[in-house]
Structures are given as C-alpha cells and as structure tokens.
Amino acid sequence: MSFVPGTQQRYLRACMVCSIVQVQQRFIREGCPNCETYLGLQNRPDLVQECTSQVFEGLITLADPSTSWVARWQRLDGYVPGVYAIKVVGQLPEETVQNMEDAGGRYIPRDGTVHDDDA
Question: Taking a C-beta distance cutoff of 8 angstroms, is the pair 58, 87 a contact?
C-alpha cells in the first residue's frame, strides 16, 4: 500500500477475505492482490462494495508475510506485503462464499466470529 493522504483515508476499505487495506479506487482498478482469483473485484464497483468493508479495527504492516509470526497469528502468511486490518466487520454474501469454496478457496471471517479451534 502506498502513502494515503489524509483526505483519502475515508476511502480506505478492507477485504473481507484477506483483510488487506486499500483505497476503494485501487480495489476497483486492480482488484484484491490476494483474492482476485476468487472475488473478481477488478472493474466491479458493486462487488467491491459487497466484498470489502469500511469498518475495520487496527492495522498491521507486513513487509515479509512469509517469515512474520504476526502474519501467521493473523492467518496472513502467504499473502502479499502490505497493510492489513486486524479485524474486518462484515460478512461476504453467501453466493460469494459458495463461489469461493467451489473454486477451492476457504472463507474464514475476519470479524472474529470464527475462533482458532474452528478454523
């Protein structure tokens, strides 16, 4: 994630699948760098609204998710370097969850509703 000026911070959104934080326009322009295969957000403002949230708590900056204990703790290992939310409020639409699972992915809510022993 590149620098976000203070005037643009209100446009920050977090992906409900991987919790990466970007401005809304970047999600629309480039999609999600971790979940694009499953979500297909690029050039789809409607899906960006459904699959990302403006309501999130805490931020983690990961330079090397493959070696970070914080990345493992937050289930972010294997994702691209960037800024991630600790908790993302919201639920993916059921159809999106089903499509993701049909494509071989696994949805673990980032809002704290699934505990470690459930995942």
Answer: yes
Residue 71: which of 112, 18, 33 has the closest Cα?
18
Cβ atoms 109, 85 nearer than 8 A: no
Chain center to CA of 42: 14
* 102-108: long-range pairs with CB below 8 Å, 24+: 103/37, 103/38, 105/17, 105/35, 105/37, 105/38, 107/17, 108/75
Measured between alpha carbons, how far is residue 108 from residues 4, 5, 19, 36, 76 in Å? 28, 31, 11, 16, 11
List the beta bridge partners of residue 88. 56
More confident site: 1 or 80: 80
If 0-12 CB within 10 Å is exposed, 13-18 middle and 19+ buried, where does residue 22 land?
buried
What's the pLDDT tens digit per position in 56-85? 999 999 999 999 999 999 999 899 999 999
